Amino acid sequence: MRVTHDVVVIGAGIAGAALAAELASDCRVALIEAEQQPGMHSTGRSAAYFAPSYGNEVVRQLTRESEAYFRNPDHQVPLLKNRPALFVARDHQQGSILDMQREQSDLQQLDFAELKKLVPVLRPGEVTSGLLDTVGGDLDVDAILQSYLRRFKQSGGKLITGFAVAALNHSNGVWTVKGNREEVCAPILINAAGAWADVIAKAAGLNPIGLSPKRRTAILVDADDSWANWPLTIDIDEGFYFKPDAGQLLISPADETLSEPCDAQPDELDIAIAIDRVQQIADIPVRRVNHKWAGLRTFAPDKSFVIGFDPRASGFFWCAGQGGYGVQSAPGVARLAKQLCLGNLVDNAHSDLVALVAPDRLI
């Protein structure tokens, strides 16, 4: 058997592409993707927002560490444009406001008059208070993905698209990944297959670790020009969100419907729910839906990332469970995953995260 790579990465969404790019400066890396182009599923259907106050502490830490990459002026185009995030609450949700403020004391608490200045269409008597995160912003997801793919190529990495995994075999310390027409071999196999990550584990002879793909729906509707500078507005208990998006308004019911791994499609009921929830608290007319889509957000049971070697199979490495945080945390996740994959000493900033993201916790 002729081993031509040090690492094979399965999945060229943002998680796989970012990690492959980080590794390619030190290793011979093959990045394989079942679709004809990278980022076809969750990455290409992201809400495209950087929210460092979103998710649990593990997610928030790796998201914060990603900001420097997004704000680096050396990129061909800006990757991050400032837009605050506004978490809004009704009377019965004041406990959620207090809980979030206790966890994140840097968020600004606002009363209704202050909320109304930011989002003038909010209905009096519906929304009563909120929290403002001024650090967030809109992400150019395609530009981020392409920045990593360029780095990967410049470092000598090999991208193979249209490579559906037909079989996985491990023998004499080497993983062989067989596709329909070719195969690649390496001692380290990285599972960055998103919604299909447990499917890949089963193909490798491992029991699944309990990842759950969940469908999320989004639509674009007509927007007034005066709405362009609104913040991302999120229900404090994540019952909906909306934000300006390229001259339109993006609306989501923040649904989390369990799904099999698939090419997710929007459900008409979820679209109706999205419009209804937003119109309950804001005077936003919706005359037509200009575009609709759905994507899968894949979570581990504790909603933290899964990063590290599986103790049950030599050389099998997980980079999965990104949930809805994959794009915003990709630089931080990729740097941590590279350290763990290459057996490098984990720096102090990450030492407390290792056990929290390790696959061992789910096995």
Characterize the structure shown:
- Helix 1 (14-24) packs parallel to helix 9 and helix 2 (57-64) crosses helix 9 (326-342).
- The two termini are 31 Å apart.
- The protein has helices at residues 14-24, 57-64, 67-71, 94-103, 112-118, 141-154, 197-203, 268-281, 326-342, 348-351, 354-357; strands at residues 7-10, 29-32, 49-50, 80-82, 85-89, 108-111, 129-133, 137-139, 158-160, 167-171, 174-178, 183-186, 188-191, 212-222, 232-235, 241-245, 248-252, 257-258, 289-299, 306-309, 316-320.
- It folds into two domains: 7-46 and 141-210 and 302-362, FAD/NAD(P)-binding domain (3-Layer(bba) Sandwich); 85-133 and 212-299, D-Amino Acid Oxidase, subunit A, domain 2 (D-Amino Acid Oxidase, Chain A, domain 2), CATH 3.30.9.10.
- The strands form four sheets. Strands 5, 6, 7, 14, 15, 16, 17, 18 and 19 form a nine-stranded mixed β-sheet that branches. It has a six-stranded mixed β-sheet with strand order 9-2-1-13-21-20, sandwiched between helices. Strands 3-8-4 form a three-stranded antiparallel β-sheet.
- It is elongated, with a radius of gyration of 21 Å.
- The chain has eleven helices and 21 strands.
- It has 363 residues and is of the alpha+beta class.
- The protein is 28% helix and 27% strand.
Secondary structure elements and their pairing?
Layout lengths: L6 E4 L3 H11 L4 E4 L16 E2 L6 H8 L2 H5 L8 E3 L2 E5 L4 H10 L4 E4 H7 L10 E5 L3 E3 L1 H14 L3 E3 L6 E5 L2 E5 L4 E4 L1 E4 L5 H7 L8 E11 L9 E4 L5 E5 L2 E5 L4 E2 L9 H14 L7 E11 L6 E4 L6 E5 L5 H17 L5 H4 L2 H4 L6
Parallel strand pairs: 1-2, 1-13, 2-9, 5-15, 13-21
Antiparallel strand pairs: 3-8, 4-8, 5-7, 6-7, 10-11, 11-12, 14-17, 14-18, 14-19, 15-16, 16-17, 20-21
Helix pairs in contact: 1-6, 1-9, 2-9
